[in-house]
Amino acid sequence: MGMPPGASGRDQVLASVRRALGRKGEAPEPEAVTARLARPQQNTIPMRAQLQQPELTELFLSMAADAQATVVRLPSRERVPAAVADFCREHGLSAQAVIAPASPLADLDWSTGGVAVETRAVRSGDPVALATAAAGIAETGTLALLSGPENPVTGNFLPDNHLVVLEERDLLGTPEDLWAMLRERGLPLPRTVNWITGPSRSGDIEMTMLMGAHGPIRLHILFVDAGSGA
Questions:
Q1: Would you say residue 172 has pLDDT above 50?
Q2: Which CATH topology does 47-224 take?
Q3: Where are the domains of the chain?
């Protein structure tokens, strides 16, 4: 059966797939698909990620370290400016950082740490940029960053040093748990979810691991302990 005049390339590809499967026309959405979307089922969860606190935190910290991220634990969000100043001092950087204008971190008292903060879009080569993670995944030591005004996607790839604030209360066992958390909180799916496990790296050139190949050289996690009253 031929395609109607003006059919797009996508239509032609889908028509070819239907012909190969022996289907005629566009089949209605199967009831099973509709039911699964309405009532998502949990996938198999590895035993390693089925933990409670404090083991969940210990696993996340261990896996993040294995991925060559560095982590500092803080008693409250108010200690973030001082922790950023410590990071800059440790790596011989000027005490300055870039934060998205809509970031909740912009409301912190940065004078306490002596850090000069610019609220603007991150540019390539910025020494330090800060972001906030929607969740941390203990299974792999991964950070989940949701795109939006608070965390523009470019901020995850352009700075030399990526500093990310993660609240212990947002720690999850597996990646699948993120979708459940978003549904429970009534949050819409973002345009992009960036899963970040350690700093950027590549071993494509002569099998030599090169840090910062496609993004930040360092990933530094500012881990805010739960129950701090912050």
A1: yes
A2: Rossmann fold (3.40.50)
A3: 9-38, 47-224
